[in-house]
Design a protein that fits this description.
Blueprint (H helix, E strand, L loop, with lengths): L12 E5 L4 H12 L3 E6 L2 H12 L9 E5 L5 H10 L6 E4 L16 H28 L8 E7 L14 H18 L8 E8 L3 E2 L1 H9 L2 H7 L8 E2 H13 L4 E3 L2 H9 L9 H38 L1
Helix pairs in contact: 1-2, 1-8, 3-4, 4-5, 9-10
Keywords: Endoplasmic reticulum, Lipid metabolism, NADP, Oxidoreductase, Sphingolipid metabolism
Pathway: Sphingolipid metabolism; Lipid metabolism; sphingolipid metabolism
GO molecular function: 3-dehydrosphinganine reductase activity
């Protein structure tokens, strides 16, 4: 992918929180191929080292720096220690860590510990490293006032759509979207010192190992509403990484990678800025007509599913 005035990674230092597997790994590969210095973070040393070796095979020059650090992103001290240990603050921070495989299920059926762990893994893990990185950026402005720094959050289609079974997960991604929305405006406080750009990507279904692991605990109703792996129109991790980077090169604040999420986003955008105002307004108008019909169908299926389950229990 060609570099752009909005997002140029060649020779820039990039940290990817959650970079050992899935989407984070694919972003790391594509960014390495584009000439970035890439450091990946995750909790497990084994997958980290495997991915680091893979990244080394994609470097474009002998002086390209590839690193990996085992960091528990839900531990604010470990996160702060990592950011402090860097010889210089990164130019770009991708926050990709998180997931829902362990906490998927109807709200009444999951535990309070699972509710908390989902918030820890998806929201607090993002907030802690964003906070630590932003504070270091403010202490150490770039040498050139024209240099851009980028903070990229990863939310989900679930940030806009509540499905039965995602009661623990969806609120964490809505919170991530709200944090990105708030920080986008808040960093304007520092525009006279430096140019910090905040972005938020909203991938839908990504066919990775985590997706198939999630199916084990996923309620049947949720599978029916979402669709199966064969018909729900998900994307591979390399394709989602490619489309995310494309959105960044276009200078977009909110980045969607499929038409369904695009409709949902523009139906719920509120005062968030529009990257393509006329198009986004038209999509929002279409969504306001389309999604009420889908919502009615989802509600009807949920009621029918509940009746069937209650009937089974009474037999």
């Amino acid at each position: 992918m060609k570099q752009s005035k909005h997002f140029d990674v060649r020779g820039k230092s990039v940290v990817i929180a959650g970079g050992s597997k899935g989407l984070g790994r694919e972003l790391a590969i594509q960014l390495t191929t584009q000439g970035a210095h890439v450091t990946i973070l995750a909790r497990s040393p084994g997958p980290l080292e495997e991915t680091r070796q893979e990244l080394l095979s994609h470097t474009q020059s002998p002086d390209q720096v590839i690193g990996a650090s085992a960091v528990d992103l839900t531990d604010p001290k470990q996160v702060q220690d990592f950011i402090t240990s860097l010889p210089a603050p990164p130019s770009i921070l991708f926050i990709v860590a998180g997931g829902t495989a362990a906490q998927v299920g109807f709200f009444a059926n999951i535990t309070t510990e699972e509710i908390k762990s989902c918030m820890d893994q998806n929201y607090f893990a993002a907030a802690y490293i964003a906070h630590a990185c932003l504070r270091r950026w403010l202490k150490e402005p770039p040498s050139s006032p024209t240099e851009k720094r980028h903070l990229i959050f990863t939310a989900s289609t679930a940030a806009f759509l509540g499905f039965p079974g995602y009661a623990a997960y969806a609120p964490t991604k809505a919170a991530t979207r709200a944090l990105a929305d708030t920080l986008r405006q808040e960093v304007l406080l520092y525009r006279s010192q430096q140019d910090i750009r905040v972005h938020c990507a909203f991938p839908g279904t990504i066919y990775t190992g985590a997706f198939y692991q999630e199916q084990i605990r996923k309620p049947q109703l949720l599978k029916e509403l979402e669709g199966t792996a064969e018909n729900k129109g998900g994307l591979t991790a390399p394709r989602v990484a490619e489309l995310t980077l494309k959105g960044l090169c276009e200078g977009r604040f909110f980045i969607t990678v499929d038409s369904e999420t695009d409709l949902l986003l523009n139906n719920m955008r509120g005062p968030s800025p529009r990257d393509r105002p006329v198009r986004d307004w038209i999509v929002g108008l279409v969504a306001s007509l389309v999604w009420p019909v889908y919502r009615w169908q989802f509600d009807r299926k949920t009621v029918a599913y509940g009746k069937e389950e209650m009937s089974k229990r009474s037999d």
